[in-house]
Amino acid sequence: MSMIEQLSGPAKALLNPSIEDWRQQGKKVLAYYCPYVPEEMIVAAGMMPFAMRATGSASSEEGDIYAHSATCSFIRHILDHAMNGAYNFLDGFISIDCCDPFRRMFDVWRRKRVPVPEKPLFLQILSVPKKVTGEEVLPRLINEFAGLKDNMERYFGLKITDEDLRRAIKTCNESRRLLKEVYALRKRPAPPLTGGQALEMMIAATSLPKEECNSLLKELLAELSNAPGQKDYQARLMVIGSNLDNPDYLAVMEELGGLVVADYFCNGAMYFWEPVDEALPPLEALAGHVLKSPSCPRMIGDFPRRLELIREMVKDYRVDGIIVQRLMFCDIWGAEATLLRWEARKTGLPLLVLEREYALSGVGQLKTRVQAFLETIRR
Amino acid sequence: MVEIKPFNPEQTQKLVETLALAPMLGEIVPSERSMGVVATALADYYRSILSAVENGKPIVLQQLCVGPELFYAFDVQPVNPEAWAAVPLLTNPEMAVPYLEIAENAGVAADLCSVNRTMIGELIGGSIPRPDFITWASQPCDSIKVGYYIAKYLTGVPMFFIDSPQWDTPECLDYYAHQVRQLIVFLEEQTGRKLDWDRLKEVVEESNRAVEYIIELNELRKLVPCPSDSRVPTYLFITFMTMLGLPGATAMYKAFRDEAKERAQKKEGVVPEEKIRGIWFSIMVPWDLFWQNWLQEELGHVNVMDMFGYLTALPIDTSTPDKLIRGLAERWHMAVPMGRQARGIVDSYFNDFLYVYEEWKGDCLILAGNSGCRWLKGAYGMLREICREREIPALQFDIDIFDPRFVSAQAYRGQVEDFLTTVVMPAKAAKKR
Description:
The complex is a heterodimer.
Chain A: H1 3-12, H2 17-24, E1 29-33, H3 39-44, E2 48-51, H4 61-66, H5 73-83, E3 92-96, H6 100-112, E4 122-126, H7 137-156, H8 162-185, H9 195-205, H10 210-225, E5 235-241, H11 247-255, E6 258-265, H12 269-272, H13 282-292, H14 303-316, E7 321-327, H15 331-347, E8 351-356, H16 363-377
Parallel strand pairs in A: 1-2, 1-3, 3-4, 5-6, 5-7, 7-8
Chain B: H1 10-28, H2 33-55, E1 59-62, H3 69-73, E2 77-79, H4 81-86, H5 97-106, H6 114-125, E3 133-137, H7 142-155, E4 159-162, H8 170-191, H9 197-220, H10 232-243, H11 247-265, E5 276-280, H12 291-299, E6 301-306, H13 321-334, H14 339-342, H15 347-359, E7 364-370, H16 380-389, E8 394-399, H17 409-432
Parallel strand pairs in B: 1-2, 1-3, 3-4, 5-6, 5-7, 7-8
Helix pairs in contact in B: 1-2, 2-10, 2-11, 5-6, 6-7, 8-13, 9-11, 10-11
């Protein structure tokens, strides 16, 4: 089996054999949501970080009991999964106050003690500043991360030392470096992996123990460095937007002749783009990492920096057109899509805004819109 | 690029003329006395904005969670877009519709809260003055947070954004207070003037007098029967975020307090027979002018307290600049309705609702769910369970705060009437037995 095929496995289901092995060794798994959560803290505690997703959720029925239908379907699917015990393998869940629906979803977990009321999880929602500038921001964030560390130590009865954190930072930085190297291969005229495969890799990277992931990524790099690559495409696309953990969504675009060569979403480039500074005291380094990473549109006032990075990526990855995908009712990406649309009009860069639900649906409509877009930009 | 039209004051001038007529209505119809009082204050507010435009006084677009006190101290004219758009709905329920369409046509997501879509549409359409700078806070919700950035992008003017942490710890309050100090520096840069601390003290002391009246008034509203009109909480909120610190606002709160006190002394309620004490703990319906009259007169329902009228602000210690800043930080971070409940974990909303329900002796919860609201929609299931456990009759219905096309007045009024007559009244009667 090729390394690409091997790395595609974790994206197909919530659980994978590596998580089961990990659990069998008596070790803990902590879910997190948002790349602003310092997963190094989880690694330093000897636990496995798992990026929260609702893969395999066929309906949001149970979630709909708690959240109105005009709320992001991602959180309704997570709630449904949680109510049905799909996350029973978790020992905890850490998130940030990324958006209003996510905060409410977290409230349901906390108040209802899901997934197992008798065995409440370690749950923490972090208050991450919604801006990246201002002398007060870094100390506030360091304080928040220090609180997380204290709470984890207290809850799990362990000590997370600076040395543990430094080691974890090195390990996670190694992941970031490898992922960025793989992404760099996509700049080639014939990228050695499709957008769907790149997303599968990203899901694997956030659903496997870090060391295992790093060794697989090294093998993948070796495999891809001389691969012939994809030549049969009509246009090179960049996909921007809300959290996306379904590679099939990108596959639909790629079946029509597009090739996704770059992205800007939380579980894509935003996750690994910047390394954590290994020279700084660990908590300061982790907090600083949040502020220098490609920002989420929740970070107010940072649009110019996001735009600059997107423009750089468009140039470096030779992008022909941008697709902004947005989960229905996502205010944060809704506003960003508006700004990007206005910027695209200024520069003449083709841009399509698509709205979607968490579960892949309305494929016919999606195909029609993407096909029409590709017609306008094909090489 | 989206083109922004220059400000056209015509619509606002007409609004001022209409508001100026309201006190006459109060003289003819005694039940409309409070409407007359608030209309006078609002007419002054709009007049001062028109005058600022005419005289080139700096204008700040000021969001609801950044109080107006500091701007008045700086002699900067605050324009609060939420109130700016809500008040004209009193004269024309469809007033926001053209601006919603302008925003949507420009590419703004149609599911963004209509409050923010209207602001964006008004900026593009030239019906709100183009500001010299914009200030806003991250609370209460995502829509406001990102909506104001769109306004900043469109106008290209300088911005100051206050990040409200999720928590109320002393460390978080220090963080917030630091940002208030930074806001002062920002205003000094924008206006080219140093802050006159004595003037700020004066404004805040005026706001303290206003707060004392609000506290007293809200205490009086706990009486059975309730001696104060159902619409007063909305008036309190609109003026709290636009005019706090101005003598006109204080006079208005005093008038509301006096009116309630007078009725309370006579042991009279605002309606001859109070049948239901409602707690509206979400949005109100600003485009349906006489809905509260209808509820009061037809059904004997009084909105005894709602989310926006539940003002928890306290007087601020003005003895030192540090205490003053800290007081403003606490007020803006913790006491602005909706900001207070929407920020952080949902418990702050539930605790406030349950406290209000008990203290104001509510008979039911009515939740008008704004179509573009996300922070509360994710709490519906939990709230339903809370009400069920405590046997609190609860109604939730969908509506749009600024757009009457979403659900009509007839449709939502029917739902409210059915709920009050078939659920709340029988439940109340059964309790009495």
